[in-house]
Every structure is written in structure tokens, then in C-alpha cells.
Amino acid sequence: MSRARKAPEPTLLDKAISWISPERGAKRMHARMTMTALGGYTGASKAKRSLSAWNPTAGSAAADLLPDLPTLRERCRDLERNNPIGGGAINTVTTKTVGTGLALKSVVNRQILGWDEEQARNWQRNTESLFKSWAETNCCDITREQNFYGLQELAWRSVLSSGDVFPLLTHKVQPGHHYSACIQLIEGDRVCNPDGKADTETLTAGIERDADGAPVKAHILRSHPGALGVKERKWDERPFFNERGGRVLLHLYRRRRVGQPRGVPYLAPVIEKLKQLDRYTDAELEAAVVSAFFAVFIKPGNGGQLSPLASAATGNTPVGGDAPAGRASGGWDGSLSGGIVAELDDGASIDTASPGRPNMAFDPFVLAMLRQIGMALELPYEVLIKHFTASYTAARAAVMEAWQFVRGCRDFLGHNFCQPVYEHWLEEAVAQGDVEAPGFFDHPLLRYAYCGSLWVGDGPGTVDPLKDVNAAEKRIDIGISTLAKESMLYDGSDWEENHEQRALEVKRRLDDGLSATPTARPENEPAVNPDLPERT
After folding, report:
1. Residue 296: predicted pLDDT
2. At what angle do helices 22-38 and 12-20 cross, to 10 degrees?
3. How far apart are CA 490 and CA 469, in angstroms?
4. H/E element holding 28?
5. Whole-model pTM?
6. Do the Cβ atoms of 332 and 342 come closer than 8 Å?
7. Left (φ > 0), alpha (ψ -120 to 50) or beta: where does 461 sit?
8. Is the pLDDT score of 408 beyond 50?
9. DSSP string, 72-114
């Protein structure tokens, strides 16, 4: 619907021009009225009082982000450490995205390689087995502290709390390990302009880019800028790509705008609300604690002073009784603690206190704020606070809504971190002859065919397991899903491994004279309750 626009008021210049030349003044006012009538969005109006003071700048992605990035990092990290909601949100997204780790599922391109199904399956299983032997040991971490799955968790947590992280794909020969390929995670604070140089068109926030905006190399401070005891500051230059075009330095961050040079912390849109809600919660908690101590107000009857005998005593001392041993005789000092009783002077009276705590409006207000915070973080507030009190349908809707967000996070982590790391390892495995891949180093198309993969993680969980299993069975029966897909969706397992283990179990049970399935009863064995009908 169109809206009426206020006619522009003539300025002093308009009035001066109209006084000198009424004709030119009229044309000027007509042009201004025409320009005023062209706009059609109320949100762009500067005449409305509610919007007149709202004048954001139209800066580039770098101009809007980089001046605020250090403060955003500091505050988001503080919220992760000390705020239950902020820390819980990052923990939830990290756990749901990574969980026990994203596992490799090799999927080569058989059409490009010209392989049959059996040949592809054998190659994939051999490669997965070798990669697992590397990924499950700490040789993949240059610090020898974590395995590959722990590095996934740390890298993704760094993206959420700091905005970005720089994994360096390098080699380090370590005693007792077969492969030298390893990963070094570099915190985003260490990538900065050398000696505090100002940003230019080619150097921005420690990253040099070419004319097209592609990263060329990064300037990495040898120690964290906030480290203790570091006096000398030196930078190392690290290229993003090697001479063959392979990635050797990754920049792990989620881009929200064209030309965005660095990542934005996950909690950035809700920093103020989280901090204010934290303060409000602390204030309500303190008020509730204080109100629990209040029992009465004492009204002295001797001119406004308590009797010298009036003093704090424990709850076991009756009013007017003897003071406990060691009590000061100077009178009650007004301090509060549990079970306080004060002795009263003759003529004094008491009034009960009604502080109104706990505040009955506290919980509805906090939930309303959590709904807003959850929308910004793409987490339904039920998932954010781990509290499901609605129906099964509502709870499942909340879980599946969060799962859509987690799937996007998992795809991002798998494509931008796990896949380059896998290619980095596979290059060494092929060079050493552990994996046979003819043409791997000769043709990019063959390399692509060998490196195909899926990264499978834990399942989304279930609200009602029986309903979900029945739904999976139905999807398989009508042909819209497969056992492989349902196995990955359930718990991230591999269908072929499940099938082989299942076949082994069935064979062992039959060889030992048992039924093929543990739930089946021998033909002559009666039901547990003979009054109930047999299940068919």
C-alpha cells in the first residue's frame, strides 16, 4: 500500500532563489517534490520520527567488520567462558556438528576412473582403513595433543568463538609414526598486518590478496599478541597454495557478505542481549537471596535506637534469650544471614517484610528473550536451553529445525576442513605407495576422482525411537530411501559394516543352535504371559 509523503519544506536557499527568481524557485521546489514522491519504502523514510535518528553507514564488508572485530572476539570469548547461555549455545552447536567426529566415507568417481563396483569398493575400503590409522593417532596434530576428530572439534569451536581459524597443512616427521602429514591450527588473532601497518587494497587484516580478491599469503605472528612474556614480535609469511595449486593454508570462516575478509564470531548478533540478560539474572538471584534473609523490620521504641542488648543471634536463640557466646555487645550491625533473630527493646515492634522475590515474571520474560536469541543463533529455544515440555510433534519440530542448521554446519566443516586434510594425507599415501592411484599427480581430473568422499557424523538423535524406526522402515519399503542412508542418518554408521557384522552374528547364533534373531522364541516355548495373544 502506498503511503502519503510529507511535502518538503523550503530551505533558506530555496527561499533566496525564489526571492531572486520566482520561476527558478518554483522549478526547484517541483523537482524536490518529484524526488520525494519517487520512494516507496516506509523503512527508508527520514521524515518519520521513529526513523529519523536511524542513519547507518553503507560501508564495505571490511569497513563494517574489521574495526570491531577485536572487541567482538574478546566479548564472545568472555560470554563463552562465563555466560551459561552463550557458552551453552557454542557447546551445543559444536557437539551436534562434530560430536564424536566426522568420519571418512570414500566415494570415488567410477565413471572417470573406469572401475567396476567391486574394484571401487576394495580401493575405498583400503583407503578408509589407512586414513583411519592416521586420523585416530595424535601424529596428525603438530602439537601431538589430539587426533583428527579432536582437531575437528577445536577448529569448529574456534570458528564459533573467534570467527575464524587458519589450519596449516604441513609435514613433520615424528618417531614411531608412518606418515609425516600433520595439521597446525593457528588462531585468528595471530594473522594480522606486520608492525601494525594500515590496510590497503592488497593487504587486509593480515591477508594479501590478488586483484580478483583471491588470498595469496598470510602474515602470521609467531606468538599470540596477548601472550605473556613475549617481547619480540616477528611475522612469518605463509602461502595459501603451493606450486601445483594445492591448498596448504586454509582459512576457515563463514562468509556473510561479498568481499568479507575475516570471520564474524557466532555470538556477535546477540552480545548485548546476552550480557544484559546475564546482569538481569544476577540481579534477580541476588534479590531472591536477600529476600530469603529478610524476616522482619524492627521498629525501636526508645527514640529510634535498638537496645544495647539487641544483637544478631542464631535461629536457635529465642527472642529475649541470652546472646550466644562470643557475640559482640555493641548491638546488631544490620548484617543478614540465614535464621537471624534480634532482641527487642521494651516498646519495640516488628513488621514483616514482603520483598516480592522470587519474581513471578522472571521466567516468562527470560523465555521471551531466549526465543529472540534462539532465532538469531538458528537454534529453537527448546534446543538452546535443553528443555522440552511441549508435545511430541513440537519437540520433534524443534529438533529437526536445529538439525537443518547443524547439517549446514557439518557440510561446511566437511568441505572446508576435513576434505582438504584428507587430500593432504592422500597425497603422501599415494607418494609412498600405500594407496595405488595411477595418474594422481598427472591429471587434476583423476585426482578429483580419487579424492571423492562423504563426511559422516553422529545422527540427529530421536524423540521417539520407535516412531523414527517405523518411519525409516516405511521409507525403505516404498523406495525413497536406502539402508545406507538410514544407517548414516540413525547413528552415522556404515551399512556394509553393519551388514557384515549382522551376517556374522546370525551365522554364529545358528552354529550354536540358537535362533537367527535374539528376540525370536523357539517354536514350543510359551509366551511370557499366556493370557496375552501371540504377536504376529
Report:
1. 58
2. 140
3. 9
4. helix 22-38
5. 0.79
6. yes
7. left
8. yes
9. HHHHHHHHHHH-HHHHHHHHHHHHHHTTT-PEEEE---HHHHT
